[in-house]
Fold:
Amino acid sequence: MGTPDFSVPALKALHKSGHKVDLVITRPDQPMGRGKIITLSPVKKTAIELGYKVIQPDSMKTKAVEERLSELEPDFFVVVAFGHILPKNILAIPKTAAINIHASLLPKYRGAAPIQWAIINGEKETGVTAMLMDEGMDTGDILLCSKVAIRPDDTSATLHDRLASIGADLLIRTLGDFETDDIHPVSQDHSQATHAPLLKKGDGHIDWSKPAEKLESFIRGVTPWPGAFTFHGDKQLKIFKTKPLPINAEKTPGTVLDGFPDEMRITTGKGVLSILEIQAASGKRLMIKNFLHGYKIPPGTVLS
Structure:
């Protein structure tokens, strides 16, 4: 059971390992882009390529879904970024276990956006956890976990790809431990839990009153989705890459500083943020020097 790109390496790993995948379950096809073109999920595309049967229920709480899954008499459910909460009666179907692969070191960052929030919050490491599923949101017993360092230049896109690959390997290791009866579930310390709620489009709006270092982490965390942005008057500017500078400037946060013709340095709540890559609403993503040749932002301008 899975839907986005993060789920695909796990499905491919299951296929390559020789485990028998009786059914793939993914979210219904969605309209995408400005043309609202109905689009298959990455998992559905991959499942079709690999020759698997696919179903796409609107809900996992229907009798029809329960009956279909019960008929298969599965040993395991494998859930990776599926997007549905599984009710108790569904979780009870597999003979051995329902396993979830989650992109954080649980109990930290339970929820839909663990990769983004780990970067936004300036974490130095994160990882992937294999766990037994229960009725809660990422609250089940931990089976295995794998840690990974968050690099200084990581965006949520680059970290996503590394964790997806690690998650696929962790899944195969977990199933192997079940086969050798070497499985040792450990309860989560719920008092240490933190949450990673889904990010919405407006959550990429830059708050210049925050310190420059935190803004740099924020911008990496929301790249590529929902994307970091600010406003020059009524024009939206997308910010992709920045560098915090330990400079004190006694100006309103968001002010474009004078004296740097091929740079754009902006005051923050603490320190200055140098913009390295940027894009105007109708333009291309550019290095700041190239951007400023065609788009003028006078010093003293306050971005909002």
